[in-house]
# Entry
Amino acid sequence: MSATRDAPETKASAAGSTAADRYETVVGLEVHAQLKTASKIFCACSTTFGARPNTQVCPVCLGLPGALPVLNERAVRFAVMTGIAVGARIAERSVFARKNYFYPDLPKGYQISQYDRPLCVGGRIDIHAGGAWKRIGLVRIHLEEDAGKSLHPEGREGVDTTRVDLNRAGVPLIEIVSEPELRSGGEVYDYLTRLKQLLVYLDVCDGNMEEGSLRCDANVSVRLKGQEALGTKTEIKNMNSFRNVERAIAFETERQIGIVDSGGRVVQETLLWNADRGAAEPMRSKEEAHDYRYFPEPDLVPLDLEPAWIESVRAALPELPYQVRERLTREFGIPDYDAEVLTETRSLASYYEEVARRSGNAKLASNWIMTEVNGVRNKQGQSIEEFPIRPDRLGALVKMIAEERISGKIGKQVFEMMRTRPEGPEELVKAQGLLPIDDEASLRALAREVIASNPGPAAEVRAGKERTFAFLVGQAMKQSRGRAHPEKIQDALRKELGTK
Ligand SMILES: [Zn+2]
# Structure
């Protein structure tokens, strides 16, 4: 080993930085979202999840010879709604294409998709990363049919078996392809969260990743910061939760930096994320030898959309997440942060709106939902629809607190009771004896009791020892179980002590 070679420049110490600091990750995502139509994209079979295998099939989705596809209008509408919501250009003519490949769960031997003439072009998703908004461009959104599902149950005596369920074959999907503009697992996580939120607001997809309604593949490469050219990418598949996507990208980034930084070359390949092992592993090569030989689908005419129809879809679009956020900050004067939390789902936003209106105190309503309601929901894994305290009852409780008829502390006790009981806060407060003591007569009576049971300290205060007064106030609060009005009881004590 010569002195010149290992002299000053181990790469990490040269710039005082690690390899991870000098490289950046470049990620593009392909998200498949299952559209919430009642029937499949090219036939009338049901799309209901969880039915017995192969009970929702017909000659069209089984790919039997001579069966012809008929396009589902609602699938087109849902795809166009999504395109408009992300600001994409909606193509007045798009073309379906056959994507040819052989797989046991693809009975036709091809999938009907769109290739060079997709339905939606361009668009963007705005993400919130590192304290600032960032715009992620979209390449396209196209319509396609899903394939069936291969199941690999435990074989008898160790013999591997594969079964095929074609209920999913022909379920409508949109594929949403992003530009390679995401730079970290965190940005990818936020992108996916916002995309899912948008699809659920639009009510075009249920966003359920466990049931496969939302699936994500990531193209990942690394390059030195400041470099223009993209590095060689790998594609990661099989990530079934947003957290797994984030983990897989972190893993793959580190792996690629390790290779490139030691002078090696990344091999372009498809990797499967193994969540149990926390590693992305190469697919067997025969499974990734893709040459799809796309050609226009001869059984379907081009999809031509009237501009007036596109406009009618635009006009009927529901309020989008960012629009609800803006409206809540404008109408209720709550901070951006609150609006962001409260618009997580459309139903949470509606819940908030009702509590804010009924309570007459929008910020207090927001605080109660963000801390108490969301605290319980997160612990119990409840959606806002499942949360037992409906907004009318919570609104009444927040109103009592806002009007200082009960303290926040008593409010929390009532809130706990309301979770398991049907009564409103007014009834509970009365029935449980939680009403505050703030009328003169009751406060004076309480003060007399406290003085009588603490003659020593009372004498001290009368003799001018002010510090002991706080002790008497504390005793009064304790005796009233926190119900005495904290300022008024001081007044009453002074009057009874004769020091005022
Ligand atoms: Zn069918």
User: Anything to note?
Assistant: Residues 36 and 204 are 5 Å apart (CA to CA). The radius of gyration is 32 Å.
